[in-house]
Amino acid sequence: MQAVTSAHQPWHAANLVALDLEGSGAQEHHDEQILEIAAIRLVAGRPDMTTAYTTCLDPGRPIPAKPWISPGLAGLALQGQPAFTDIRDALLTRLHGTYLVGHNVGVDWRLLHRHLPELAPAGLIDTYRLARATDLNGKLGLTDLLARLQLTAAVTSAAPASRPHRALWDTTGAALLLPTLIRRHFTSEPTLQQLLDVAGIPSTPPTAAPTATPSTPANQGTLFD
């Protein structure tokens, strides 16, 4: 009998890792720094908080307080935190060959790929894309969806030391949002391939962020979705 490929296994059997990055701003183009990152493995479709990984990163310079900078990351707040080079190996170990899950995960992947080009995920799964394909009304930002689907308290309980728009909280939110959206969108348990057909996005990132205007930095709205 022909072996079943991973794409035809149930979605929750795949090697899934929820991911969120907080950056210094896409308007900085190739100078954009990663300020905070979190990664949570999904086991049987649920976030495994016992092995959750999160860290702030020292960008090597002060971060101006701007509307798109997540709370607690501006100024010299990150001075003395690990440098990105200190966590490269840990990220490769956790993320290489996995399916990365996130809300607007393409934004996170573009920035991560720029700093860690040797990382090769198996694919990207976007909960925002899945939400758009699901019968939901209203705003589709992460905090909006979590509130509408009554998941906010569960996220805060799972990540009590974090808060909305910080990496661990948002990663936990995406990890809990994924199975909820799957149950709403599919009439039966989908395979990984069926999920990718709806929520998958290309893992080849754009060569650069869209050009920012002086009044509206590129893609900054997505940092808080």
UniProtKB/TrEMBL annotation:
Using the UniProt annotation, give all residue ranges assigned to the region (Disordered). Answer: 200-225
* Keywords associated with the record: Exonuclease, Hydrolase, Nuclease
CDD domains in the cross-refs: DEDDh
Q: Which SMART domains match?
A: EXOIII
Asked if the keyword Hydrolase belongs to this entry, the reply reads yes
Tell me where on the tree of life, at the top rank, the source sits: Bacteria
Where does the record place Low complexity bias? 209-218
**Where is coiled-coil annotated?**
none
A molecular function annotated in GO for this UniProt entry is: nucleic acid binding
Q: Which residues form the Exonuclease domain?
A: 15-187
Q: Does the keyword Nuclease apply?
A: yes
PANTHER family attached to this UniProt entry? DNA POLYMERASE III SUBUNIT EPSILON (PTHR30231), PROTEIN NEN2 (PTHR30231:SF4)
Name of the protein this chain belongs to: Exonuclease domain-containing protein
- Specify the species: Paractinoplanes ferrugineus
